[in-house]
Specification:
With 88 residues, the chain is mainly α. It has helices at 12-16, 27-65, 67-87. The protein has one domain (12-87).
Length: 88
Amino acid sequence: MIRADTEPITTDTELLCPENETYPCDTSEFRERARQLTQGAAAALDDAVSYVRDMLDDLGAFIRAHPEQALAVAVVAGFFLGRRLRRH
């Protein structure tokens, strides 16, 4: 049941064209705002992917430079993870 005294939910059109009083807004404005939002999301995703790749490259370099320490860390982490999973 819909209550008449509640505020309407903001629509995608209102989010994309907040300065426009009448909806739907001009399609060129809508397309431009959608393009900006898409490019912003793509740039953020590219940054996240680059960050993860850099971290993995650094981890690989550390493992190649210090294989004994890396193996020791893996064994200890595996031991504690195994104990944790066995308890629950």
